[in-house]
Amino acid sequence: MKRFTSISLALVLALSVGLAGCGKPDAAGAGGQQGSGQAKEKVLTIARSGDILGFDVHNHGFTSTESVHVNMFNYLVKRDREGKFQPDLAVSWENVNPTTWRFKLRPGVKFQNGDPFTAADVKFSLERVAQDAKLVENGNYKQIKEVKVVDDLTADVITHEAEPVLLSRLSRLGSSMLPSKYIQEKGWDEFLKKPVGTGPYKFSEWIRDDRVVLVKNDDYFGEKGKWDKLVFRSIPEEATRVSELLTDGVDIAVQIPPTDMKRINNVNSTQTISGPTTRVMLLSLRTTSGPTADPRVREAIDLAINKKAIIDSLFEGDGKETLTPIIPGIFGAKPDLFGKSNYNPERAKQLLKEAGLESGLTISFTGSVGKSLKDKETSELIAAMLEEVGIKVKMEILEPSKFNEKRNAGTTGDMFLVAYSNSMFDAALLYKRLKPDTGYNNPEVMKLLSDAEKNMNAQEREKQFQQVQDILAKDRPQIPLLQLGANYGINKRIEFTPRIDEITYADEIILK
């Protein structure tokens, strides 16, 4: 398996072109063409580690759910593989003044129920996510003050203050366009049961914890879908995903364990593909109550963890130690915090003694299984490392949906493990969950983040984010562990090139 290292975003995206598999098409199995003659149906089946959270595009924040949504819905703006902004539902845009962006909308677009897409839908969609504080993505869109409808095909997005990354916000999860007329007439509950978007594929069925099925939208405004049907299967167990791939049950399997890569590559019909990601695995620690409120305990936890051992034993060397969640290639990165670890178990024991805890302490630790690659095993290995320095761990391992519920409700243990990706390619995104997840409220940090959010001077803004990282590296409300790569198993009947943002656009996957 090719060793993954962190490189700049532009280079990563350019290099990813050569990663696709090769082989002869096969009419049997999950993918390819089913049926006979002219009636053959092209079906793409993808095995994922968990189910979607639902069809509320503003209320999830998870790449795995967005990978289904992007095939049904559209943004105003999208990013290509080189990270450049491209038209989607907006054909052009301009920054009229620091707080006003004008978008010209694509004419002739219809939602999948036949309703026309207009500026009224832009207003409805963006004002909903910007104004409803209960929505998960509200923190990434509350910068929007209002949307003014200039005419049916022109919308002005007005922000409270200068907004340097509005295009980035409008090209990622949380900014999909919703059908205002349909929702206002039928109600939100009906939309969630029968979701409607403008994308190349439309909803067919959702069997919870089993599969989501989409079918081609023949009225799509752009190039028609390459597949007749998309099937997103929920298979939490790694071994079962691999087995389904090897027995022709699925075309793509995500989160392939490094230990299974060789076995997949030794089968004539399958192969593995690895690609870089923006995802960083880290620990979030409660800073307002419990034992982790003591900064000495947080430091001891950090020093007790051998990150290299985690990378070598669980990921076969594919990963990169880090003291920051902002990796090189993301705006605001501080490279001298990347590729490093603070591992020092003897100092960890000394810190606990200084805190009067030399006789030991117990912390509660919430982990997940199937939410990210080797998350359960990583949690268990960390727990063992903490035990070695005298920290007893009360472990709770949850399925992704239960984990998400507890995290969003703020009822996780003293510490939890999570793997953050950065769909905005900007440091601002990752810090939106800092206070909700940890309770951390350092006034200096909060001011730096607030100032950076509205600073139109890129150089100053970058320095503000770097200052934040220096402070957080000492305060440790989060303990970054490692940058993750992504391993996929694919059937050789398809061509598939992973994206660094880990989003699955079905029409970027080709049946050969």
UniProtKB/TrEMBL annotation:
<dbReference type="InterPro" id="IPR000914">
    <property type="entry name" value="SBP_5_dom"/>
</dbReference>
<dbReference type="GO" id="GO:1904680">
    <property type="term" value="F:peptide transmembrane transporter activity"/>
</dbReference>
<dbReference type="Pfam" id="PF00496">
    <property type="entry name" value="SBP_bac_5"/>
</dbReference>
<feature type="signal peptide">
    <location>
        <begin position="1"/>
        <end position="20"/>
    </location>
</feature>
<protein>
    <submittedName>
        <fullName>Peptide ABC transporter substrate-binding protein</fullName>
    </submittedName>
</protein>
<dbReference type="GO" id="GO:0015833">
    <property type="term" value="P:peptide transport"/>
</dbReference>
<keyword id="KW-0813">Transport</keyword>
<feature type="coiled-coil region">
    <location>
        <begin position="442"/>
        <end position="469"/>
    </location>
</feature>
<keyword id="KW-0175">Coiled coil</keyword>
<keyword id="KW-0732">Signal</keyword>
<dbReference type="GO" id="GO:0043190">
    <property type="term" value="C:ATP-binding cassette (ABC) transporter complex"/>
</dbReference>
<dbReference type="GO" id="GO:0042597">
    <property type="term" value="C:periplasmic space"/>
</dbReference>
<dbReference type="InterPro" id="IPR039424">
    <property type="entry name" value="SBP_5"/>
</dbReference>
<dbReference type="InterPro" id="IPR030678">
    <property type="entry name" value="Peptide/Ni-bd"/>
</dbReference>
<feature type="domain" description="Solute-binding protein family 5">
    <location>
        <begin position="84"/>
        <end position="439"/>
    </location>
</feature>
<comment type="similarity">
    <text>Belongs to the bacterial solute-binding protein 5 family.</text>
</comment>
